[in-house]
Amino acid sequence: MPPLDRPALKRRAQELMLTTRPRVITVGLVYLLLCIALEFLRSNVMSVNISQTEAMNYINYVSQGNYEYAMRYLEGMAPPTGAYGIDLLLSLAVSIVTVGFLIFLLNSARGKAAGYGNLLDGFGFFWKIILLDLVKGLLIGLWSLLLVVPGIVAAYRYSQAQYILIDDPTKSPLQCIRESKAMMNGHKRELFHLDLSFIGWYLLSLIPLISYAVRVWAVPYVYMSRTLFYERLLGRNVYSYSEPTYPM
Hints:
This protein has one domain (7-31, 85-233). 70% of the residues lie in helices and 0% in strands. It is built from twelve helices and no strands. α5 (81-109) crosses α12 (211-233), α6 runs antiparallel to α7 and α8 packs across α9. The longest helix is centred in the middle third of the chain and has 29 residues, at 81-109. Mean pLDDT is 85; it is low at 242-248.
């Protein structure tokens, strides 16, 4: 396989973002709004409202050296046990919707029927998505125990597992991870450099006043570029432009 032509791949990603129907940019906006809504619910479920009096009581217990009582007092103000379960479910929903967005991007890149409904397609095999996230997180976490760099390498090694699962949901999470490892052999540096080329967008997205506006373009742009990278690993031509096909 010839070296990655990064500028050409990113140009193709931009073309797809502006020419597909529905537009990648608009579906990306819906995806971002869904994620923001889910994260808002998570923050509300796990929020703790502490009055000034309660805060002063806690400070007094600590200043008096009554740490055990202070901790019990703080635990009494923690969210209820059920809130942690709801928070977990909302977090998993974000992962599943993200897979749905990847499904939409793959369909758009391949000229297949794509639509807003793709955002919910991940719920059709959500258990596989959850298990894959757990296994990936565990493996990357174990590699990270050695040092930061092995953890980063592991993250790139398993980066194609979600796409592989999308293409064949009958595969097990471990099978997807093994295939991603084989697929990324000799290509981890290419994907790292592709991600690094978006550093300017990442930095802009951290500026409070414009962060959300930047993400409306940057998130679909990065995800589409990564999707085309996967297509290239499958041996497909991702550089030349061809008019996508649309459903009648």
